[in-house]
Automatic annotation (TrEMBL):
<dbReference type="GO" id="GO:0009243">
    <property type="term" value="P:O antigen biosynthetic process"/>
</dbReference>
<dbReference type="GO" id="GO:0008831">
    <property type="term" value="F:dTDP-4-dehydrorhamnose reductase activity"/>
</dbReference>
<dbReference type="Pfam" id="PF04321">
    <property type="entry name" value="RmlD_sub_bind"/>
</dbReference>
<comment type="similarity">
    <text>Belongs to the dTDP-4-dehydrorhamnose reductase family.</text>
</comment>
<comment type="function">
    <text>Catalyzes the reduction of dTDP-6-deoxy-L-lyxo-4-hexulose to yield dTDP-L-rhamnose.</text>
</comment>
<dbReference type="GO" id="GO:0019305">
    <property type="term" value="P:dTDP-rhamnose biosynthetic process"/>
</dbReference>
<protein>
    <recommendedName>
        <fullName>dTDP-4-dehydrorhamnose reductase</fullName>
        <ecNumber>1.1.1.133</ecNumber>
    </recommendedName>
</protein>
<dbReference type="InterPro" id="IPR005913">
    <property type="entry name" value="dTDP_dehydrorham_reduct"/>
</dbReference>
<dbReference type="InterPro" id="IPR036291">
    <property type="entry name" value="NAD(P)-bd_dom_sf"/>
</dbReference>
<keyword id="KW-0521">NADP</keyword>
<feature type="domain" description="RmlD-like substrate binding">
    <location>
        <begin position="1"/>
        <end position="283"/>
    </location>
</feature>
<dbReference type="InterPro" id="IPR029903">
    <property type="entry name" value="RmlD-like-bd"/>
</dbReference>
<dbReference type="GO" id="GO:0005829">
    <property type="term" value="C:cytosol"/>
</dbReference>
<comment type="pathway">
    <text>Carbohydrate biosynthesis; dTDP-L-rhamnose biosynthesis.</text>
</comment>
<keyword id="KW-0560">Oxidoreductase</keyword>
């Protein structure tokens, strides 16, 4: 299997490279070596490499910054995936693209299924939804995996931020009325590999962590895991606050849990995020 990977330096890109099965050949590209917004560069690279699979781990992921940088977010999150879908189709390759729970408004009381109506609340979610639509228009056989609350030992993420704040401060105030499922990037990478090996059908799939928490509850588990691994001198006090007490540029969904029932048909289980948190924090240590 020849895989053209974009966004190779991001959380998912790095985790994917760590898990490449024996015999697979990966051309790992980052924003310097392949800008996905450059359609002719994408075509040129795909035509030369002739991948059997294109995996798009590249995205504009700065949720709040996107509110004042909408054109750039759209170029990367909608234009880029469209370029890659076209190139994958031309190369007769599979295409796996990653999207987000932020395509939903978070008003559902039950976990979202793939066919639920979308309604993004901010620019990031809207551009990711436009990306999904563009991918399915260009190449309907593509696979789109919506995921949520991604963390890993790589890059910047909530776990690393909380660990830093936990070391610096005696008390933290964390939002307690937004709920979702943390997801380890390594488990998303493994799901991509498993779906490829299984020859999964094109379409949208949800994949996220196996247990729903609020950001405050997630922080509690980050702190106890860090203390157990001797990464903290003392446990900080973690106080729950409302979204209204922590204003951000982008509005976020209140309850964006995703149902992973559809992807389970390929034997793929939701991310065991507590176990992954432990091993991931041991690596950070
Ligand atoms: N992080 C989350 O909590 C979360 C939640 C739900 C869904 N997702 C989705 O999951 C996927 C992976 O996210 P992640 O957390 O691994 O993202 P990440 O760590 O922010 O990595 C994204 C990568 O995309 C690259 N990139 C940006 N613009 C590019 C361009 N024009 N051409 C090529 N590469 C470009 C970045 O490279 P540079 O740094 O060099 O620009 C970066 O390495 C994304 O589709 C994201 O939308 C993430």
């Amino acid at each position: 299997m020849k895989v053209l990977l974009t966004g190779a330096n991001g959380q998912l890109g790095r985790c994917f490279q760590d898990r490449v099965p024996a015999g697979w050949q990966v051309m790992a590209t980052d924003s310097d070596t392949l800008d996905i917004t450059d359609a002719s560069a994408v075509d040129r690279v795909a035509a030369a490499f002739q991948p059997g699979l294109v995996v798009n781990a590249a995205a504009y992921t700065a949720v709040d910054k996107a509110e004042s940088d909408a054109a750039r977010a759209a170029l990367i999150n909608a234009g880029g995936p469209a370029n890659l879908a076209r190139a994958a189709k031309r190369a007769h390759a599979g295409f796996i693209h990653i999207s987000t729970d932020y395509v939903f408004d978070g008003t559902s009381k039950t976990p979202y299924v793939e066919t639920d109506a979308t309604h993004p609340l901010g620019v990031y979610g809207a551009t990711k939804l436009d990306g999904e639509i563009a991918v399915m228009r260009e190449y309907p056989q593509s696979i789109i995996i919506r995921t949520a609350w991604v963390f890993s030992e790589y890059g910047n993420n909530f776990v690393k931020t909380m660990l830093r704040l936990g070391r610096e401060r005696a008390a933290l105030s964390i939002v307690d009325d937004q709920r979702g499922c943390p997801t380890y990037a390594g488990d998303i990478a493994q799901a991509i590999i498993d779906m490829t090996i299984a020859g999964a059908d094109g379409g949208i799939y949800h994949f996220c962590g196996d247990r729903e928490v609020s950001w405050k509850e997630f922080t509690d588990e980050i702190m106890t895991t860090a203390a157990r691994l001797d990464l903290l001198d003392a446990l900080p006090i973690v106080k729950g606050i409302g979204t209204d007490q922590y204003p951000t540029a982008a509005q976020r969904p209140g309850h964006s849990t995703l149902s992973c029932a559809k992807i389970a048909r390929y034997g793929i289980r939701p991310s065991d995020w507590a176990a992954a948190l432990n091993s991931c924090m041991a690596k950070i240590a």
